[in-house]
Write a structure and sequence with these properties.
This is DUF3626 domain-containing protein. This protein has 267 residues and is an alpha+beta fold. The chain is built from 9 helices and 12 strands.
């Protein structure tokens, strides 16, 4: 990308693509995201799945379509949806929970060779960025480290181009430990890549209540309703999401609280 500048990336760095494995795989689906991954064996963009943990704008004329058109000079305007970029983040800080937990409790860690077909920007493409990078020239990590954005917003966005095959392009699926012994783990064991675990997200309602302005009093109240024994985990939030009894935006913001203020699972 001609707009990129800086030094080459550390070859040990990896792109992580975060998602919630226990959400329904589509608006009318009766299988989970992790079950769909195990069946299809590839990681698809919102243009294919119709699901997202950000905004649902992947359609002609939608925000995601316009951002991609601007970023890549219209190259994807008529492209096969599966060839459109898949979004993740560069885990240059080597965080065990992935580079961008804002978008999910679990993630796939892409293999090193995928860096050669990945572009980067900072900040998120939602923010109309002017700084870009590729594997051979990327100053974005310095920009991110010098910034004072919220912990959920301080990632270097990655756009992975082309098909993402779980057999050849993924080093591991990394799950939150709240899914141990659940149908999520069972489905994950059918994936053609190793399964690993990070340290986990556990947020106390006391900690969430200490930050009422982060997402608002209504979200704090909902978090308290969804908690068990005064704590929230990704599994509990996913159970609530699948009932359809709460607005998806509210569930998303409960997750933001958990990801932002939740510490590692003490177990």
């Amino acid at each position: 990308m001609a707009r990129s500048s800086g030094t080459p990336l550390d070859p040990e760095q990896r792109v992580t693509c975060s998602f919630h494995p226990d959400r329904w795989a589509g608006p009318d689906a009766n299988d989970l995201v992790i079950e769909r991954l195990a069946r299809d064996r590839f990681y698809a963009s919102q243009f294919v799945t119709g699901t997202s943990n950000g905004g649902l704008t992947a359609f002609r004329g939608g925000d995601r379509f316009r951002w991609e058109s601007a970023l890549f000079g219209g190259a994807y305007d008529e492209a096969d949806p599966d060839l459109r970029p898949k979004y993740g983040a560069l885990n240059h800080r080597f965080r065990r929970a992935g580079a961008s937990p804002r978008f999910g409790s679990s993630y796939i860690r892409l293999a090193a060779h995928t860096l050669a077909r990945t572009t980067f920007c900072y900040p998120d493409s939602f923010d109309d960025p002017s700084d870009f990078g590729v594997v051979g020239a990327c100053s974005l990590t310095d920009l991110a480290d010098a910034d004072d954005r919220d912990l959920l917003d301080d990632y270097v966005e990655a756009q992975v181009h082309g098909h993402v095959d779980l057999v050849t392009d993924v080093e591991a699926l990394v799950l939150d430990p709240s899914y141990r012994g659940t149908s999520v783990e069972a489905a994950a064991r059918d994936l053609p890549c190793p399964v690993e675990w990070h340290d986990g997200f556990v947020a106390s309602i006391g900690e969430i209540r200490a930050h009422p302005d982060y997402r608002g009093a209504e979200i704090v109240s909902l978090a308290a309703q969804l908690a068990t024994d005064g704590v929230l985990t990704p599994r509990l939030i996913g159970d609530a999401a699948r009932t359809g009894g709460h607005h998806p935006q509210a569930i998303k913001q409960v997750w933001h609280y958990t990801a932002r203020f939740g510490g590692p699972d003490p177990a």
